[in-house]
Amino acid sequence: MQAQQQSTATMTQLETAMAMLMKTFDTYAAGEGSKDTLSKAEVKTLLEKELPGLLKSAKNPGEVDKLFKSLDFNGDSEVDFSEFVVMVAALTCACHDRGSKK
């Protein structure tokens, strides 16, 4: 992606956000197994380190399992980059304070 080749000083905020998504995914995916997917353990570690508030608000430990299953669209017991981006987008929408005003 061209955004990765630009220096961070010249990147827009959105390009920087996209680069951080890619870097974050790659960092955690490199932990075990395939570097192109996140295992259940890697998803849990990512959530604990990158989204601690989300886990604290979860009332029971089964929430991580539930979230993992909802992310794994193709049922391969791993979360690929596309599935990860859907999670981030869904969480962003949930956190966005502007509801649809019709």
Automatic annotation (TrEMBL):
GO terms for biological process: endothelial cell migration. The keyword Calcium applies. GO terms for molecular function: calcium ion binding; calcium-dependent protein binding; transition metal ion binding. Keywords: Calcium, Metal-binding, Repeat. InterPro entries: EF-hand-dom_pair (IPR011992), EF_hand_dom (IPR002048), S-100_dom (IPR034325), S100/CaBP7/8-like_CS (IPR001751), S100_Ca-bd_sub (IPR013787). Gene3D superfamilies: EF-hand. Residues 59-94 form the EF-hand domain. One of its GO terms (cellular component) is extracellular exosome. Belongs to the S-100 family. PANTHER family: PROTEIN S100-A1-RELATED, S100 CALCIUM-BINDING PROTEIN. This is EF-hand domain-containing protein. It comes from Gasterosteus aculeatus aculeatus. The lineage of its organism: Eukaryota, Metazoa, Chordata, Craniata, Vertebrata.
